Amino acid sequence: MTSFATHRRKVHDGALPAHRRMSALRTCLTEFAPYGFRATFHHLRGSAGIPRNPAHDPDSLVRAVEELQAAREVWVPGILAWQEARRVQKRAGVRRPDPPAPQPRAWCPNPEFHPLGPLAEVMPRVLRAREYAGRGCPVCEADHSAVSWSDGHGVHRLCAHCGVQLGWTPQAVDDVHRRSACASRWRAVWRGDAEWERPPRA
Ligand SMILES: [Zn+2]
User: Fold this and answer.
1) Buried-exposed string 82-105: b where 16+ CB fall within 10 A, e elsewhere
2) Distance between CA atoms of 127 and 146, rounded to whole angstroms?
3) How many A from CA of 129 to the centre of ligand 1?
4) Rounded to the nearest whole angstrom, what is the distance from the C-alpha of residue 161 to the centroid of ligand 1?
């Protein structure tokens, strides 16, 4: 938690070169990324408008880290309450946490397909996902059919509406081409070359 705060301050630090502020944003994402690192980065690049060269708009990095911080503020009170309850349980000899620790993440394996809307607005649904007992997607609760998406290692079953992973099966045949296509697509997102429209869900 302190690491997030430290690196958030670095993102804000106008005395640092833009690439170091970008690197600090990346560290914040390794600590907290509601859709996983890649999909959350893709979301922030689009929502904050981070240009290919962040030096052209360093304020975009501040917008990105503040959107991330706003989502984190939705999660932190819950985890602090859970930690306090867990301390009481441990003193009482309860070995297995009940309930389990609240997870601040809904995994979106395709970096370019994740819930839309500001992170802080989606976050309460991410936190409630584990308790969701309905038939639809645990995050958007839409009763859409799932779509398949392969990263070359396995086939992910994604919510057709928001991209959250609903299931996963290992790929019968290792698909090297698919893996390399996914890797180059991710490099384009990382560099800021990717188009922001939703890609085909192959
Ligand atoms: Zn969904």
Assistant:
1) eeeebeeeeeeeeeeeeeeeeebb
2) 21
3) 10
4) 5
The answer as to whether 138 is a domain residue is yes
Q: How far is the CA of 41 from the centre of ligand 1 (A)?
A: 19
DSSP assignment of 30-70, as one string? HH--TT-HHHHHHHHHHHHT--SSGGG-THHHHHHHHHHHH
Locate 199 and state its tokens. 């890609």
* Structure tokens that stand for 200 in this block: 């085909």
Ligand 1 center to 48 CA (angstroms): 23
Position 102 scores a pLDDT of 81
Q: Is residue 201 part of a domain?
A: no
DSSP lists the bridge partners of residue 153 as: none
Number of domains in the chain: 1
* pLDDT tens string 43-96: 999 999 999 999 999 999 999 999 999 999 999 998 899 999 999 999 999 999
Q: Residue 117 falls within a domain, yes or no?
A: yes
Q: What domain range is 64 assigned to? A: 2-191
Contact 62, 9 (CB under 8 A): no
In a domain, 196, yes or no: no
Quote the ligand 1 centre to 136 CA distance (angstroms).
8
